[in-house]
Amino acid sequence: MRWLRSISNRLRNLFLKDTVEREADQELRFHLEREVAQQISSGMSPEEARRVALLEFGGLEQFKEDCREARGVNRIETLLADLRYGFRTLRKSPGFAIVSVLTLALGIGANTAIFSMVNALLLHPYNFRNLDSLVRVWEDRGIDEGYDARYIAPADADDLRSSNGIFEGLTTYSFQSFGLGTEGDVQPILGCRVSANFFDVLAVTPAAGRLFSAAEEQPGADQVAIVSYGSWQRRFGGDPRLLGKTISLNGRAYTIVGIMPKDFDYPVPVELWVPLALTPAERADRTQLSLSALARLKREVSVSQASVVLAGFSHRLQQEFPKTNAGRRTTLLQLRKELYMFTLSLFLLLQAAAGFVLLLACANLANLVFARMIGRQREIALRAALGASRGRLGQLFLSETLLYSFAAGLVAIAASFASVRALRTSIPVGWTKWVPGWDGIRVDGSVLAFTILAALAVGVFLGLATMLHTSRVEPNKTLKETGTGTVTRTKRRVRSALVVAQVMIALILLVCAGQTIQGFVRLANVYQGFEPDRVLRIEISLPQKVYTDNVKITNFYQQVLRGTASLSGVQHASLVTSPPASNVDNETTFFSIEGQHALKASEMPSADLQVASPDFFDTLKIASVAGRTFSDADSDGAARVALVSRGMASRFWPKGDALGHRIKLGAADSTEPWLTIVGVVGDVRQNWWNPITRPVIYKPFAQSPQRSMTLLARTASNPISYVSAVRNVVRQMDPGIALEGINTLEEEIADSIAIVRIMGILMGIFGLVALALSSIGVYGVLSESVAQRTHEIGIRLALGADPRDLMKLILGQALKLTGIGLAIAVPCAIAISRMMASLIFGVITVDFVILCGFTALLLLVALGAGYLPARRAISVDPVVSLRYE
Amino acid sequence: MSKPTDLVQGTLDLLILKSIALGPMHGWAIAQRIRQVSKDVLQVNQGALYPALHRLEQQGWIEAEWGDSENNRRAKYYSLTKSGKKYLQREQANWERLSAAIGLVLKTV
Fold it and tell me: Is the pTM of this model over 0.90?
C-alpha cells in the first residue's frame, strides 16, 4: 500500500505540477501568517513581525527548492529537461545527428536482419508443441554418417515401439515420388508415406478433414491421402469440396481425407502424405535400413536417459539377431539439434559479423561524440562550476546518447521490415524449401525486442563512454584557458584505443568475409569431373499406368534420345537418373563382389547407383579412365555390364584390376544378375554439401530402364533456346508427358549453392561496411588531432621546419595506431578463420594471401586517411595558423 | 548547502511522527507542539520542517488533507498512515534503545 501511495504521489507531482506547487505555496503562506500573528500577539508591530518571520525562513526560493527536492520532483523533471535539451542540441547540428543516427541504424539494422533469420530458423524452426521432446531415432554402425543416412529397419522400429518405456510415441516415414493424375496428364510430385500415428506424435491436427486410422496402415486399405495446404492451393485451386474426392497416384485411386494447416511442412515440404502400409514381409525386414523414425520422449525422460535405454535395446537386438544386427547401434538426436547442424554455424557466424559491424559503428560514433565533447568542454566546465554534480552531467550526456540510439533504433526497425523481406525472398525457393522455418522469417515481437535491446545497449554504452570522458573536467583550468580546449593524455589514449579496436575488427571482418567469398567461389568449382556449360537438363517422369513394362519405357526414351540428338545444334543427348547438383542424394545400394566372402548384411559395402544411357559420359565430358563406356550394344539381351567410378575402383581393386570383375547389387546369394565391370570413369562430385566423393556404380539404361529420368543435352549455344524443340520431340511421342525441372546445368549448380552465395554476399557487405567505418574512424581521429595541432604546426613551419618531416610525423601517428590494431588482429583473425574452417563444410580454409592482402589494404587506407589532414595542415599559411584558435 | 546528518534527520522525522500521532495537525502547529512539549529546548526550523514533511508524505508514512484551521484559514493537515503508525512504533523503540544505551555509556565512563 505504501508504495502505491508513493507512486500516486509521484505521478501527482509530475502531472499536477502546478497544483502541487500552488498548494506548497499556500502552505508556506499559512505558516508565515501564523508566525506573524504570533509575533504581533507577543507585542511586535505588524511590519516588524513580518520582517522577523521572513528572516527566520531564510531564502524563500531556496526553501521551496528544498521542499521540491524532498518530494522527489527533480529527478524526473530534470530527465525530461535533459531529453529536451538533447533534442535541441541534435536539431542544432543536424549533420552530426544524421550521420550518427544512420551509422547506428546501419549497425542495429544489420543485427536485426540477421537476428530475424536466427529467430525463425534456430529458435522457432517448427511450430510443434514441446519441440524439445521430439527426437530422431536411427540405427548406424557406431558412426553417424549424417543427415542423409539416418534410417532404421522396419522390424527394429516395431520392436522399439512396443518394447520401451521412454517414448510417448514413435512413428516412421519414408519419402516417395508419385505420378499424380491420370493418363495423359501425369505430374511428378513428392509425397511422404507415414505411419498412422505420425501426426499424433507431432501433435498436429489437420486444418480440415481427419488423420489416418490404424486400419489404414494395412496394404489394400491404404488408399487415402492427406494433402498439404500449399498443394491444396496450387494443385487443386483451393477447391473447398476437395475432401472425399479421389485422385490418382501412380495409377491407384486415393481418397483425400484431410488437409494440413498452412505452416505444417514436416519432414520437408511434401505435397501429400499417405499411410505407410508395409506388407508382413516388409514389416519383418531387419536387413535394409529403409525408414526414417521420429519419436516423442515421455515428459519425465531426458535425452541422456533415453540414450542409455536405447543402448540396452540395441544390445538385445544384437544378441537376438546377430545375422542382421551385429554392430548395429540405435541412437537418437533432438529434432532441433538435427536442424542446427545445417544452420547453426552459418548463422552464428553471420550474427557475429553483424555484431562486429555494430561495434564498429559504436566505436565510430563514440569518436564523433568525443570530438564534440572537446568542443563543448567549456560548457561542461561551466556547468560543473555552477554546481552540477558528476552524476548530473552524466545523466545529461546519457539522455543525449539514448536519444541517438533510439532514433537509430526506429530507423533500423523501419528499414528492417524491408531488409528482412528482401532476405526472405532473395534466396531461390529451390534451396530454401529444404530449410524449415524459412517462410517464418519476419519482424515479430522477439525481433522488435531484440532491436530495442540493441538500441538501448548502444545508448548506454555510448553514454557511459561519454561520462568516462567528461568525468575529469577541472572547471578552474578549463575556464581559464583561452582557445580551444586541450585534450588530456588519457582522453587521447581512449580515442586511440577506439581506433585500434576499429582497425582490429575491420581486419577480422574483412578476412572472414574474404574467406567466405573464396569458399563460395571454391564451392562453385566444387563440381569437378565434368563440364556443366551449355548443358540442358529436363526431368521426365512416365506414368505407371501407360508405361507398364520395360519395352514401352525403353522405346519411349530411345525415341526421345534419337529425336533430341538429331536436332541441329545438339551435340550429345543422354539420360541419367540423377545429374550432379540436383540437391538430392543418389540412390544407394549394397553390393557384393564375386569371389569375396559372403558378408553379413550389415557389413556389405555400399555405393551410389546411377543408370545412364551411352552418351551420358560424352554429354558431361566425364573422363573414361580405363576400359570403355556404354554403347548401344549393351542392350537388354546382351551381357550384363556396369561401369564404376575411379574412387570405387581404387577402393575395392587397389591393384588397378577392376576391369573384368563381377559385382552383384544386393547379397551374393540373391537372384540379381552378376554385372561385369567393363570400364572405369572419372569421379563426379554429386552435391556440394557432401565432402566425400561416394563410390558410384553405373548401369546401362537399356538393361535397367527407369520411368523417371533426367534428359541431358549438350548444345552448341544457349541451352534454353532448345527447350521448345525438345518439348516438340517429347510431344510427338506422347503429348501427355509433362516436363519438369527445365534448366541449364550451370544455373542448377548456382541455385544449389545459393545459401553459401547469400552468405558470401552478406559477409562481403559487412566487410565493406567495416572497411568504410574504420577508415572514417582513422581519418576522424587523425584530422581531429591535426586540427588541434594547427597552432603548433604553424609555429614549427614558421621556425623553418621541413614540411616533409611534419608529414612523416602525422603519417607515423596513423601508421602507429593502425599497426597496433593489426598486430592484435592478425592472430585473432587466424584463430577465427581456423574456427570457421572447422565449422563450415570444409569449404573454408585459412588463407594467408587473403590475410596479408587485407592487412596491406588497411595500412594503405590508414595512410590515405592520415595523408589528407596532414596535407591540409602543412599547406596552411603559418601566419593564418598562428592566429588560429 | 550542507544537508542535515542522518541522525538529525531521523530524529526530526520521529518528532514529527510522534506529534501527529494523536491527530491531524498542520505544519505550524507541529513546530509549536514540539517546542512546547520539549519546553523550548527543541526549536524546529521551518526550513527543515517542510522538506521533512514533504519527504515523509512522499514516502507514504504520512498523508495530507486540506482543512479549515482554528482561525478559519485553509491549512494542510498531516496525519499518520497505517504503515506510518507501525514505522513510528519501530522507530520509537529503536530510539529508546539507542538513547538508553548512550545513557549507560555516559553514566559509567
Answer: no
